[in-house]
Amino acid sequence: ELLERAALPAAQRACLWASCARGARRCGDLLAARQLLCRAGEALRLAAAGGGGGAAGRCGEDEAAVRVRWQEAKLQWAGGGAGAAEAVRLARALLEEVAGDGSAELSALRVRLERTYGGWLDELRAERRAAIEETLLHAQSAADALGPRSASKALYEVGAFYERQAAALELDASSAAALAARAQRSRLESDLRRLRRQLVAVDAEEAAAGGRGR
Are 188 and 159 in contact (CB under 8 A)? Predict the structure, then answer.
């Protein structure tokens, strides 16, 4: 129980518990993930009460609360069934809460949240096509300012959306909607090639910087 003994602020411990829960969920251990999120919730309550000790950490209380609730939504989604609908509800509520927050700490998290939320809506067909498209395109636009890694992930989600739309329209291959979907897919493929080149350049720069540091 290193996290329990560590002299860290409660909010930072909550962030770390949430990260541990994410790892457990990705490994398929949903029970462990839920237990870890309970620990994160306890740390959040301690932070709200002004306890927890330690100096101010890299993860503030507001950011910690968003990260913990986001992992709770992802855990609901991983459980499937009715949990998927609950995950969408939680994600929508979180997006509404952080929409007006311009802090740098939450900007990247907000983009990831919106990107995943749009993908969930599409998979569940929980919104009109135009509304889902708007959500994904907004996430892509915001991700462009965060660098090629974030932009490529957002663009991939947009591309997956158009790919699913194109597949649904294959029965009427001559329709205007099908033609537009194929044209959009072609543009996205071009954008992805550009982003891959940028990522290669970023990786090369980071490797060179690491070599100079040694």
Answer: yes
Classify residue 171 by its DSSP letter.
Answer: G
pLDDT digits (tens, 9 = 90+) for 6-16: 567 888 889 99
Q: Which residue has the tokens 């969408």?
A: 88
Distance CA 211, CA 52 (A): 40
∠ CA 64-69-71, rounded to 5°: 95
101: phi > 0 → left, psi -120 to 50 → alpha, else beta; which?
Answer: beta
Burial code (b: 16+ CB inside 10 Å, e: under 16) for 145-154 equals eeebebbbbb
Is residue 71 within 8 Å of residue 18, measured between CB atoms?
yes
Tens digit of pLDDT for each residue in 131-188?
888 888 888 888 888 888 888 888 888 888 887 777 766 655 556 766 676 777 778 7
Q: Give CA–CA dist 146/73, Å, rounded.
A: 24
pTM of the entire predicted model:
0.69
